[in-house]
Amino acid sequence: MANSTSLKSDAIFDQMKLHFATDVGKELAKKVGFVYQFNIAPKKIGFNEEIYIVDLKKGEVTKGPYEGGKPDATFSFKDEDFVKISTGKMNPQIAFMRGVMKIKGSLSAAQKFTPDIFPKPSKM
Fold first, then answer.
1. Cα–Cα distance between 114 and 66 in angstroms, integer?
2. For 20-45, how does the pLDDT look when each residue is reduced to its tens digit (9 = 90+)?
């Protein structure tokens, strides 16, 4: 099961939780206003994925499937690729074109999920 695997992404989602509790994070959440689901796979997209919800209507980050209907957009990544994108080492558009990132749902909502939503990286 995926629960036995520790993902590097866990630390990023933990930082996002803290970020959305700040005034800057709350402003950002209000500005975007969408709900995103992230399926993070340890090795291969579609296998043993951990699910995270980044709810920018409420400014919350939770682990597990979305309880409030359908998310506006769903992203699927391998753990290492999500870390690269969230730390600015990989461009999200290039990741999408290369098939490193898969998107379901509203592409216009997905385009609003930009790297400035991630907290500025600290040493991990």
1. 21
2. 888 888 888 888 999 999 999 999 98
